[in-house]
Amino acid sequence: MSVLDLPFSLKASLRSCRYFLCALFLCFPFLNLVFASFNFGFVQQCCPWSRCCGMGDFRPRTVWLGHPEKREQRYPRNVINNQKYNFFTFLPGVLFNQFKYFFNLYFLLLACSQFVNELRLGALYTYWVPLGFVLIITIVREAVEEIRCYCRDKEVNSQIYSKLSTRGKDLFSVINQRVPADMIFLRTSERNGSCFLRTDQLDGETDWKLRLPVACTQRLPTAADLLQIRSYVYAEEPNIDIHNFIGTFTREDGDPPVNESLSIENTLWASTVIASGTVVGVVIYTGKELRSVMNTSNPRHKVGLFDLEVNCLTKILFGALVVVSLVMVALQHFAGRWYLQIFRFLLLFSNIVPISLRVNLDMGKMVFSWMIRRDSKIPGTVVRASTIPEQLGRISYLLTDKTGTLTQNEMVFRRLHLGTVAYGMDSMDEVQSHVFSAYTQPSHDVPASRAPAATKVRKTISSRVHEAVKAIALVHCVTPVYEANGVTDQAEAEQHYEDTCRVYQAASPDEVSLVQWTESVGLTLVGRDHNSMQLRTPSGQILNFTILQIFPFTYESKRMGIIVRDESTGEISFYMKGADVVMAGIVQYNDWLEEECGNMAREGLRVLVVSKKSLTEEQYQDFEARYIQAKLSVHDRSLKVATVIESLEMEMELLCLTGVEDQLQADVRPTLEILRNAGIKVWMLTGDKLETATCTAKNAHLVTRNQDIHIFRSVTTRGEAHLELNAFRRKHDCALVISGDSLEVCLKFYEYEFMELACQCPAVVCCRCAPTQKAQIVRLLQERTGKLTCAVGDGGNDVSMIQEADCGVGVEGKEGKQASLAADFSVTQFKHLGRLLMVHGRNSYKRSAGLSQFVIHRSLCISTMQAVFSSVFYFASVPLYQGFLIIGYSTIYTMFPVFSLVLDKDVKSEVAMLYPELYKDLLKGRPLSFKTFLIWVLISIYQGSIIMYGALLLFESEFVHIVAISFTSLILTELLMVALTIQTWHWLMIVAELLSLACYIASLVFLHEFIDVYFIATLSFLWKVTVITLVSCLPLYILKYLRRRFSPPNYSKLTS
Question: In which residues is Mg(2+) bound (predicted)?
Fold first, then answer.
C-alpha cells in the first residue's frame, strides 16, 4: 500500500499505519529492536501479526513431538541480555541520557549559538572543545561498560548443550548444567527414575528439589526412542508463578492413547541446575516467557540523587545567569537591539554554569570506582555502575536476602535434647557410645526387670538415645548417591556403599545435616529408593526398612512423617518430625517441650520435634485402606487425606528435640551492628519459611536481645488485615515478621498505613517473598520515605530487587553470579558491605560534594569579575578574558589542584569504621545543601569582587595590566583556596599545586597577546598581586581557624 492510498479517516489512517509498521518489522527484524528501545507502546497492540514480532499476549500452547507439520508458533530468542543499549540505540541512547539533563542541554545550545555571527564572542573552540571533551569521556565510559556487559552475557549465552534432533520441537539433554529454557521433564538416566534440581537462581534456596519425569516416556528403553513417538505437550500460558504448573502430556501412537497430567513436579525451569544424572526435556517456554525472566524486572538507567541535586543547583545558577543578564540590559535602559544584548550577556556570563563540573564529577566517579576495586581489605569487589558511587554514602534502608547472603546455607547439628538430658557438640562421643553399645552388646535386648538397678537406668538412657538416633536416621527424604572418585567405579561404589563416594541429596539442608549427624554417631544411611531404605550400624550390619508411606513436609502442615517396616523384626513404626508449634498438640503430655524449644530458639537454633508411634499390622491395614480411598476422592481430596493422616497423629511418643544452626557468613553480626549504628535500617527479604527467617534474624542479631518481635498473623481478607494492623500499632520498638501472602493483602488494602508502621520498626523480616514482591517493597520504600535504598542479594531471585534499589549489591556465592552480574557493585562477602558504605560511600559523597562546590566557586569567581568589569565599563558586553585564557583557567591552570580534592578525607578509614555514627551525619545531605551552596556563592562574589576592584584600582596605564594583575591573582587565589579546603594532605595534591603554578609561569612567555610579559617581571606587579591575593584569601583562613577552634565538627574531635 502506498502513501497515496491511505484513507482520510484518522482512525483508519492509524490502523493502516499500524499494519504498515508491523509489515516493516516482519521484513526488517532489526527495526523491532530499535523501536523497542524507545518503548513505542502502540506497536504492541497493532495487529494479529504482533505475535510474529514477539510482542503478542501470552497464551496456552501445544508443543508437538514427532509432528513436523505442526509447529504452532515461533518463540522469543532464548538469550540473556543485561545491556542497556544495542548497536543501533547506543549513540542515540547515550546522547539522549546526557542531553535530557538541563546542564548538558544548556551547553549544547550555548555552543550552537556561536554559529550565529551576532552572538559570537570568541573562537568556536572555546565552546565546542569543552563540550566535546565531556561527551567523549561519557561515550567511552558507557561503551566500556556495555562491552563488559556484552562479554559477560556472551559467556553465559555460549554454554553448549546436547540437542536431540527431532521432527518436531527441540529436545535437550542436560548433564549437571543449568537448564537453558523452561522444559518438561521426559527422561532421566537415574536408576530410581527421578532427579534432584537446584533452584538457587529461581527462589534463592540451594535446597534440592525432587523432580519426576513423564511416566510413559521414562519407561521407553532408550532416550533415542523419544525421537520415534508421536506426542504433544499442552502447557498453560506463561506466568510468573514458579511454584505451580498445569499441563498434560498425550502420546498418540499408543493403543489406547496415553494421557498424563503434568504438574510442577514434571517441570525443569530455566536457570535451575540439574544436581544428579542426565535429564532429557522438551522446551515449552523461551526468552521473555521464561519463569525466571518474568520474575525479573528490566534494568533501568540509575541516576544518583547527588546528580539530581547538582542538576538542581545548575538550574539555580542558570536563573542567576538570566537575572544578571537582564539587569545588565536594564541598566542600559533596553537601548537599541536589547534582545540581542540579552543573548550576548547570557553568553558572556555563561561561566556561571560551569561546563567543567560534569567532567570533574564523571572523572571523580571513575577515581572512586578505581579506589573501591583496589582496596585490599575488600578483595574481589567489582564496580559495575561507575556513575553512582556517592549513592553508597547516603543509604537509609538496606534490604538483604537471607540464604547465601547473611548465612552460608550450611546446616550444622548442634544439640540433641531428650528431656532429662541434653547433648551438645562437646558430648557427642557419649551419643556415639550409646549407639555403639545398642548394636554391639548382646545384652541390650535383656528385659529391664532382669538387670540391676544401676544398669537399668543406664540402659534406659542408652535405649532412648538409640531410639532417637534411629528415628532421625529414618524420618527424612534424603537419598544417598554414589559417584566415581577416579579410583572406585560408580557401580562398585554403589554396591559396596563406599563412604568416600557417597553424596546426600535432599530438598532441605536441614535434613542433610541430620543424616550426616547420624552417620557421625554410627548409624549411616547407605541406600534408598522409592520403596526401601538401608541403614548401616557401627558393626557393619545392614538394617533394611520398607517404606510404606511418606507424608512430605508442606508449609501448611509444618511437619513430615514416614511409616516404615523393619524387615528383621516386622515392626511397623510411624515416625514424625516438625515444628514445635504443631507437634506440641500431637505428642503425649510433657512438661519440658515448650521451655526447651524456647531456650534453643533463643540460641538461634532451628528446632525440630521428633516423635514415634508403633502400629500393629491391623492398625496399618485399616489406615492404608482409608488413605487410598481418600486419595481416590475427586472432591475435597486434600481435606480428606489430611483427616485420615491426623487419625494417626495422636498420642505420639516424644523422642527428642534437635537443634540445627544455619551458619552465618563471617562477621555478619558486627557488620549489622555497624549499619545499625550508622542509622541504616535493615530489612530482611527471603523466600524461606517464617520460622527459619525468625531464627536467622535472632542469630544474626538483626533483632537485638532487648527488642520484641511481632509476628504478623496470616491474613487473607481486608477485615483480618485491619485487626492485625491495629494490634501491631499498639506495639512499640519491636521488630516485624510478616509472610509474603499477608504482606500482599496489607499492601492491597492498607498500603499507606502498613508502610508507615513498618518504617517505624527497627528491623523488618519478610518471609516467603516472591522476587517481584522484593522489588515492590523496595519501590514502596523509595516512594513513601524518599530515602535511598540499597539491596543486597546473591541469587537470581534477588535481581529484581537489586535493579530496583538505588544501589544494588551482589554477593558472589554458592547461588551463582546472576545477582552479582546484574548489580551495581559486587562483593565476595557480606562483611565487605560495612567498609563499602562507611569508608568508600562516605568518602565518595563528601569528596563529590566538595569537588562540585569548588568547581562552582571557581566559575562564579571569574563570572563575578566579568560582571564587575562590564559594570565599570558602561555595561558593555565585552569579554574580560579571551581565547586561551578562558580555556586555560578551567584546565591546565587549576584543573589538577581542584581535581586532587578527590583524594581528600576528613578521617582515616579505621576511624570511619570504628565510629559509624559519622555516617549518620551524611543522611541529612549536609555536605551539599542550599546552605553550603550559598556560602560558596558568597565566597565567590567576595573574592571575585576583591580581585577585580583591586586590579582596577592598582593598574597603571594600560588595559593589559588589568588582565595580568587580575588573572594572576585569580590563579593564585584558586590555588590557595584548594589548600584551604584540603583536610588531609596527599603527596599528589602538593604535586598538583606546584605543577599548576609552574604551568602558569611557563605559559606567560606565550601569552604576550593577552599579558604584558615585561610588566609581570616588575616589582610593582608582584606586590600588587600579593596584596590582592592576601585580601581575598586571608580572611577565609582566619574564619576557618576560628571555626575549628570554637565550633569544631564531629570528625575533628576524633582526629585531635
Answer: 401, 403, 794, 798
